[in-house]
């Protein structure tokens, strides 16, 4: 794993829609910029050797850094993202985060039971990157469908991948839409009447 750089982004929101919150919501993104292990090799059929070698180590390192900033018991929402540079395939970004060898490290460390919300894309250095999050144990809790945006001025380079995890100690400040479960119940009742 050729790790070039690690960036941390912290956002604390106090007011939304002109209304102050009883408590701020903090979100944290920890992003690693590493050399794409498949760059310059043409089409690689089997990505597994590099996934097995890199993804668990990367998951542990990013999780350790995030938990130093926000303890597991404080985390309510979480997610992950990856962006490959323009010389790589989106599959290369996906390979690093869409494996239980990466995701389970973070999920288990914070006591999560839902899947990690995700985004995988191709991007140039300095592009706005998005890391979607959802509640760590209630996948229909829309109040916790949030997104952390971040930028890295010099990454990903063409032959690099940005891999990030994110967490928040709450959801949106003033949620006013129903949870998915309530919608389901209402629709079922409407269909029976």
Task: Examine the coordinates and then state which fold CATH places here, giving the name of the CATH topology.
Answer: 60s Ribosomal Protein L30, Chain: A
CATH class: Alpha Beta
Shape: globular
Share in helix: 25-40%
Oligomer: single chain
Overall strand count: 7
Description:
There is one protein chain. The protein has helices at residues 48-69, 90-97, 100-110, 180-192, and strands at 3-16, 19-35, 77-84, 117-122, 128-135, 146-151, 160-168. It is an alpha+beta fold and 193 residues long. The chain has a single domain, classed as 2-Layer Sandwich (60s Ribosomal Protein L30, Chain: A), CATH 3.30.1330. Strands 1, 2, 3, 4, 5, 6 and 7 form a seven-stranded mixed β-sheet that branches. Helix 1 (48-69) runs parallel beside helix 3. The model has no long low-confidence stretch (mean pLDDT 96). It comes from Mesorhizobium tamadayense.
Précis, in short:
The chain has 193 residues and is an alpha+beta fold. It has four helices and seven strands. It has one domain: 60s Ribosomal Protein L30, Chain: A, CATH 3.30.1330.110.
